[in-house]
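Support request from a user on the community tier.

User writes: "When I paste my structure tokens into the form, the page sometimes reloads and wipes my input. The last time it worked, I copied everything first. Here is what I submitted, just in case something in the input itself triggers the reload:"
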């Protein structure tokens, strides 16, 4: 048993050294091994998103009351676990309100629903870029324990929302609820 384990370790070390000498990059690995957990980590993040702006995700202007923003964002089908808020002029992400935030607001004072969403949202939330890889999302979710992460383009406009369940479905993180 010990000799089998030593042989496996030696084989792994040789493979790693050979790939470094040959200059095999992460992109090369992802192209040749798209399946499995390592291949999934190297895929573009955009392909893992279930909630995309213009399809089933509708960011709302941050100057609307929270109640107005919630009504306007409500669409048929599966709802995301957060509301993305944007600058009404530029369309750039200004904040996020999660379902947990909403629950705390309503329990504190239901009248707060009439306040502008910008007064109640989490400003400058952690975000991912639409050019990031799934591994970047996994790292952020694990490190900061985020359930929803806005995904933005290079100008700061939202393109989607990563829900931790997107990563659970890919079997890259475990559901610990």
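"...and here is what came back when it finally went through:"
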């Amino acid at each position: 048993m010990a000799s089998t384990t030593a042989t496996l370790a030696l084989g792994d070390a040789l493979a790693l050294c050979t790939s470094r000498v040959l200059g095999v990059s992460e992109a090369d690995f992802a192209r040749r091994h798209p399946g499995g957990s390592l291949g999934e980590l190297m895929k573009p993040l955009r392909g893992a998103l279930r909630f995309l702006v213009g399809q089933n995700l509708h960011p709302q202007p941050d100057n609307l009351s929270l109640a107005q923003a919630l009504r306007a964002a409500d669409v048929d089908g599966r709802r995301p676990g957060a509301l993305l808020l944007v600058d009404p002029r530029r369309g750039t992400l200004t904040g996020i309100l999660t379902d947990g935030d909403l629950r705390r607001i309503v329990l504190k004072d239901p009248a707060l629903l009439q306040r502008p969403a910008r007064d109640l949202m989490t400003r400058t939330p952690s975000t991912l870029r639409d050019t990031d890889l799934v591994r970047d999302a996994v790292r952020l979710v694990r490190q900061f324990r985020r359930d929803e992460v806005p995904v933005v383009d290079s100008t700061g406009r939202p393109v989607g929302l990563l829900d931790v369940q997107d990563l659970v479905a890919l079997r890259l993180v475990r559901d610990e609820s």
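Agent notes: The reload is a front-end session timeout and is unrelated to the input. The mean pLDDT is 87. The chain has two domains: 2-32, 45-169. Escalated to web team.
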